[in-house]
Design the sequence.
């Protein structure tokens, strides 16, 4: 029960986090009417993942390991690109909030509609196929008991509930704080996704160096525990990280975080939110 | 919306192209039972081609199953096998010596065993 619960929680958490921040952003910037595009992306990703997962589980075709890793890795890196774009899009739009004509603001937002759908889609689809394969495997195992399926579904439900709490919490922040902190949080999340994507491509043999580890703290942070699950689910922290993944993570965080801080810091008398130091 | 369809189509095409058309028809089934303390693989030999490892987790914690080459290179793996769940790992293998490994608790080198693939 617990084992399946933790897997469901871990697989669902990151998507819940990204989608919550997107939705909170739209409410904060009074574009709630665009929320349905986010839900379109989420819905399509869930439907597609479940369908592909079902075909692979119950159909006559299986997906080879390499293919699954290449899909996972590619979607991850695409997701990183889009989330990065979204962070800067959000920051730019935040600067237009005051003193700009509404029509101008809406135009900028409309241009982002297609991208909103795609970001939401990728956030969910990235781990969606793996999660669907895991869920359908649990369904297939119901002959010998429904506990695994129940555990998995409760885990996913917990991830959604946590996403809702983050959404509610984010709404309470003032605008300046909201943009700085959600932006910084998304950068850390995206860096984790990048590291994960690199690792997937290493497993598929597309990139080298799978067994050259940067560090291995599996003894301290055992992968099956609840805290390892939360760390993996939110920031994709892996107790044993390959050197290439670690380099990708560091490079991404240092470059993007610097650009982001510069962007948020640019003098803007109307807003007074101080830029603090961010900790992961 | 058009971005969405492009993305959706890309995923479908990607999934379609890379799926394994001749996988299960003349595939060799191998039963793997992974408990918290043992990893039972039956049989431990298969002809070159597609092999389907059906990994049943009979233990109390989540497990993973790996197929490795002698030099520890990962040939294939399946993760997220929760307690009481069975998952399949489909893999195309060429002749050679391999190592199977179950990782209950998802940590360490796992419980290993030899696996050989021979030319038919």
Sequence:
């Amino acid at each position: 029960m617990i084992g399946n619960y933790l897997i469901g929680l871990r697989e669902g958490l990151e998507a819940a986090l990204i989608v919550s921040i997107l939705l909170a952003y739209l409410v904060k910037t009074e574009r709630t009417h665009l929320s349905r595009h986010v839900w379109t992306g989420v819905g399509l990703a869930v439907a597609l993942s479940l369908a592909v997962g079902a075909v692979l589980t119950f159909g006559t075709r299986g997906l080879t390991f390499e293919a699954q890793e290449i899909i996972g890795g590619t979607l991850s890196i695409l997701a990183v690109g889009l989330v990065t774009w979204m962070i800067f899009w959000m920051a730019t739009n935040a600067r237009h909030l005051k003193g700009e004509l509404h029509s101008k603001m809406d135009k900028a937002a409309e241009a982002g509609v297609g991208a909103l759908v795609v970001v939401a889609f990728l956030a969910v689809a990235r781990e969606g196929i793996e999660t669907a394969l895991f869920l359908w495997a649990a369904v297939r195992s119901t002959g010998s008991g429904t506990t695994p399926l129940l555990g998995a579904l409760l885990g996913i439900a917990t991830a959604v509930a946590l996403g809702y709490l983050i959404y509610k919490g984010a709404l309470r922040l003032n605008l300046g704080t909201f943009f700085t902190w959600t932006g910084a949080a998304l950068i850390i999340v995206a860096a984790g996704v990048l590291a994960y994507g690199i690792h997937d491509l290493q497993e598929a043999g597309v990139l080298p160096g799978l067994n050259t580890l940067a560090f291995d703290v599996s003894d301290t942070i055992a992968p099956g525990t609840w805290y390892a699950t939360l760390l993996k689910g939110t920031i994709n922290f892996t107790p044993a990280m390959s050197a290439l993944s670690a380099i990708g993570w560091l490079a991404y965080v240092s470059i993007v975080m610097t650009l982001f801080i510069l962007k948020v810091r640019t003098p803007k008398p109307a807003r007074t939110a101080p830029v603090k130091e961010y900790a992961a | 919306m058009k971005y969405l369809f492009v993305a959706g189509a890309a995923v479908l095409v990607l999934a379609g192209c890379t799926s394994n058309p001749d996988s299960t028809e003349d595939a060799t089934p191998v039963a793997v039972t992974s408990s918290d303390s043992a990893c039972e693989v039956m049989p431990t030999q298969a002809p070159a081609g597609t092999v389907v490892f059906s990994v049943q987790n009979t233990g109390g914690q989540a497990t993973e199953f790996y197929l490795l080459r002698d030099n520890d290179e990962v040939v294939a793996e399946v993760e997220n096998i929760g307690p009481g769940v069975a998952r399949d790992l489909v893999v195309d293998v060429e002749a050679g010596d391999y190592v199977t490994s179950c990782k209950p608790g998802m940590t360490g080198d796992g419980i290993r065993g030899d696996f050989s693939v021979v030319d038919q």
